[in-house]
Structure formats: C-alpha cells, structure tokens
Amino acid sequence: MNSAYHRRVVFPRELGNSTSRQLQHESPTLVVPVGSTEQHGPHLPLDTDTRIASAVADALVTRLRAGGGPDWLIAPAIGYGASGEHEGFAGTVSIGTPVLAELLTEFARSACRWAPRVVFVNGHGGNVEALQQAVTLLRHEGRDAVWCPCTSSNADAHAGHTETSVLLHISPAAVRQDELVPGNRAPLSELMPEMLRGGVAAVSSLGILGDPTTATADEGRRIFAEMVDACAVRVIRWAPDRGGMLT
Predict the structure, then answer these.
(1) The model's pTM
(2) Alpha-carbon distance 123 to 148, whole Å?
C-alpha cells in the first residue's frame, strides 16, 4: 500500500472524533455548520436550522472527499445564532449578532492555526449579518475563511413547506405531523415592517411563515439535493464576494 493511498484512508472525517496527532501534519479545509436554537412552529424541533446545516455540511464533505483533492474535515455544529426575531416563543435561545460575530471570528482565528481554510455552512438567515462581519474581518486579517448559505429556489420563509419537507427527508421522526397547520403565507416583503417592530410573533401566533401542510419527504429530498449541489459548486469555485460569501 503506497503512502498516498494510506493517507487518504486514515485521514479523519470528523473533527470531534480526531486526535491532535492525526491532524498535526495535515492541511485540511474545515467545514463548520452554523445553525440556531429557535422556535419552528408546533411541528418542528428547535434545532431545525442546525440539523439542516449539519446535514448539508455532512453531505458536502462526503461529496468533496469522494472527488479527491484537499482533505475535508467537518466540525461540530455551532448550534446558537442570532434569533432575536423569535424570542416571543419559548425555547428560543439567541446570542445576538455581535456575540455570534465574535464567536465566529475567534473560532476561525484559532482553527486557522492548523487548518488553512475554513468554510461556515449557514442554516439560519438571521446569522447572515454576523457571518458577513466575521468573515470580512478574517479575510482582511489574511485568513482564508468563507461562508456558504443553505439555499433553495422558491423557498418559503420559516417552518413552512421548505423546512418541513427537508426535515421529513433528513429527520422524519422529529416532525410532529399531527401538529401541521398553515401559517402566515403572505410574502415576506409584506410582513417585514411589522416583524421588525414585533418579531415573528407579531405576524404569526404559531411562528410559521408558510404552509407546512404541503410538505413531503420526496420534496424534501429534492430541496436538500439542491442545497448540497449549490454549496458544492460554490465551494469548488471558491470565489468569495466582499462579505466573504462563496458565489
């Protein structure tokens, strides 16, 4: 067995299951899921965004490792984000944009001492400002940090058709299907002024923006594949914009 082949076999896949010795002579790209702990209506778990970001990051790492090239390593998820708009609902834990930005910055400053590249995979829209702030600063400091969103076309806003479908695909046991009810289906652009004043609770007593009753596992499989495909294209291209998001 030649040394190159042996290295590909033994190189760890998950940061949490690795040892320092395994990584000391390596130069991996570290993939970091970033989610939230926030209400997702009566039918989805509080860690929905973290589950989606983690699943996308996991599938992304599987694909990139299969394609060869640099070593790819997945980190434990960052499960708290900027979720102030959901604080009208029990269970939501928001650390806010300034703290999240500092957390991401210090995370990458430390990780980049041994991982030449870091990519944050984001599953929550409320984290975008913090990601932009942190990654812009990190890149200004000379660190090759970037971020990538979990996006799909024609997605609804929150806990509706899109997220419920994806959860039915990746984590079906977590979906309380007897609690599926439609939420506020108005366009987000119409809801935003009131949401900025009073959060999601001001426009939906259930915390749902969209209609989860139309969700299916098959649709979730399609949406999830779209998210992974989009992330893979962005990561392979590695062309960050001014805010550090891969395009």
Answers:
(1) 0.94
(2) 9
